[in-house]
């Protein structure tokens, strides 16, 4: 592998015209992530601000209106219940944060996925309330216990000092104020981290450049983000990574488990960027458990049993003759002509969906992707609900799409299936806004 140790990662020339002064949020907003992430984090920041300013006022009011002597069963056991009321906004914000984690637009997706569709909403509602109540009790009891322990410790060190419940609560609210302030600072950093990561994944060269430094052993990338929304890479971004790997003497690895179906030689040939290693899987086994990798000769020779001190690659499904037989049969069907035909069908699906949403004025749904991989991007404040409506309405019409919002065509799909899919989309475009 060629190296250029005299160069810094910041000197890598990718040929990109990316503007380093462009705001980090720009690319994220273009891809629709702004409504999913920044909306939620903005809410948390605002709630934390209100909470931070309201806590001292609540403590002062309690100190003046609740002068009961510290101690007794009630004070030790249930005293946390009074300050718990003030924890409501913060716990609510934490619950909202937990519901925003899946970027696929689902609402408490892991809970809903374990039950029939009709139970999705009730489970989400119950999980949200349990999460919020858990946050209230844990934060309130923690602050109360800390304040109580501190008060008892002071009383032991200085006999005669007797704290009232109100004073203990004042200490508890002081701890709460500190926590709220830390939460405020933390959410701002979290927001930046999420935005930077998403931007980096969206092929922002200038956002990725600072992450590269000597000592990195490998750079791993999907030429198209599959689980991240079916977002294709740009040739400039992949060329930049190739140049970076050469400069840093790192191994460039393409994960083409999903994307290799888009070109007879994988997306690396389409983009004309050669990685050092390529990972393949899934369909190459003809539908059975499979996975393989290959690449540069000097790397692969290390796995050659005929060499001294060779590396051993063990695996549960290694040497599965049945999988290899089925995989070979499948590869014989995957000809360049079939790949081109399938990609053309994918282009028709994307164009058809976008045309129907344009006519139906459903601006919050857009079909993106590459070839036979179609991503459904739902944006706007109702994006999460639109995804649910779209998924279940398509099921009603006997059309199954990915729960995260994607469509992947296979060799059995023909024109008639595309027409069936687009007819279903046409029927539900007018219905979707009214069901949100």
What's this model, at a glance?
The chain has 436 residues and is α/β, with parallel strands linked by helices.
Structural class: alpha/beta
Number of domains: 3
Q: Which geometry do the CA atoms define? A: extended
H-E order = HHHHHHHHHEEEHEHEEHHHEEHEH
Q: Report the average pLDDT across residues.
A: 71
Strand order of the largest sheet: 1-4-5-6
Beta-strand portion reads 5-15%
Give the fraction of residues assigned to helices.
Answer: 40-55%
Report the biggest beta sheet as strand number plus sense, adding barrel if it closes. 4 strands, mixed
Radius of gyration, in Å, reads 28 Å
How many strand segments?
Answer: 9
- Span of the ends, CA to CA: 54 Å
GO molecular function, one term: transmembrane transporter activity
Transmembrane segments: 44-66, 72-94, 126-146
Protein name: PLP-dependent transferase
Keywords: Membrane, Pyridoxal phosphate, Transferase, Transmembrane, Transmembrane helix
Give a verbal description of the structure.
With 436 residues, the protein is α/β, with parallel strands linked by helices. Mean pLDDT is 71; it is low at 1-10, 14-42, 62-77, 96-113 and 193-203. The protein folds into 3 domains: 9-15 and 207-333, Type I PLP-dependent aspartate aminotransferase-like (Major domain) (Aspartate Aminotransferase, domain 2); 25-201; 336-435, Aspartate Aminotransferase, domain 1 (Alpha-Beta Complex). The protein has helices at 25-30, 34-65, 72-78, 81-84, 88-99, 109-112, 120-157, 165-201, 205-208, 235-248, 267-271, 297-300, 321-333, 336-359, 383-396, 415-429; strands spanning 218-221, 224-225, 231-232, 251-255, 277-281, 291-295, 365-370, 373-378, 406-408. Its cofactor is pyridoxal 5'-phosphate.
């Amino acid at each position: 592998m060629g190296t250029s140790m005299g160069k810094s990662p910041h000197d890598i020339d990718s040929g990109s015209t990316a503007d380093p002064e462009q705001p980090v949020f720009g690319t994220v907003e273009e891809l629709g992530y702004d409504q999913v992430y920044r909306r939620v984090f903005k809410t948390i920041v605002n709630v934390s601000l209100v909470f931070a300013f309201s806590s001292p006022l609540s403590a002062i009011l309690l100190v003046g209106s609740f002068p009961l002597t510290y101690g007794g069963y009630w004070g030790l056991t249930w005293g946390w219940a009074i300050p718990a009321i003030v924890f409501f906004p913060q716990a609510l914000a934490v619950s909202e944060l937990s519901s925003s984690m899946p970027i696929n637009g689902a609402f408490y997706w892991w809970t809903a996925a374990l039950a029939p569709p009709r139970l999705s909403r009730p489970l989400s509602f119950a999980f949200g309330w349990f999460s919020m109540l858990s946050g209230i009790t844990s934060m309130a009891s923690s602050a109360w216990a800390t304040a109580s322990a501190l008060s008892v410790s002071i009383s032991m060190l200085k006999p005669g000092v007797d704290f009232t419940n109100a004073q203990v609560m004042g200490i508890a609210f002081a701890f709460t104020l500190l926590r709220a302030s830390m939460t405020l600072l933390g959410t701002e950093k979290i927001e930046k981290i999420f935005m930077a990561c998403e931007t980096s994944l969206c092929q922002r060269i200038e956002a990725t450049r600072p992450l590269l430094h000597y000592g990195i052993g490998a750079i791993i990338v999907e030429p198209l983000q599959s689980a991240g929304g079916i977002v294709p890479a740009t040739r400039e971004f992949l060329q930049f990574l190739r140049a970076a790997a050469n400069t840093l003497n790192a191994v460039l690895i393409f994960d083409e488990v999903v994307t290799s179906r888009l070109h007879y030689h994988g997306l690396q040939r389409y983009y004309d960027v050669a990685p050092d290693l390529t990972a393949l899987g899934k369909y190459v086994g003809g539908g059975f458990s499979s996975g393989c990798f290959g690449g540069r000769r000097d790397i692969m020779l290390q796995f050659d049993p005929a060499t001294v001190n060779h590396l051993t690659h063990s695996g549960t499904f290694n040497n599965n003759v049945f999988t290899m037989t089925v995989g070979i049969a499948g590869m014989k069907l995957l000809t360049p002509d079939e790949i081109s035909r399938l990609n053309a069908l994918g282009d028709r699906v994307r164009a058809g969906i976008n045309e129907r949403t344009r006519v139906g004025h459903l601006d919050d749904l857009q079909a993106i992707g590459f070839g036979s991989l179609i991503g459904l991007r739902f944006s706007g404040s109702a994006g999460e609900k639109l995804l649910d409506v779209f998924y279940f309405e398509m099921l009603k019409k006997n059309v199954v799409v990915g729960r995260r919002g994607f469509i992947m065509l296979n060799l059995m799909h023909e024109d008639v299936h595309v027409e069936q899919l687009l007819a279903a989309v046409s029927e539900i475009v007018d219905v979707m806004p009214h069901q949100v």
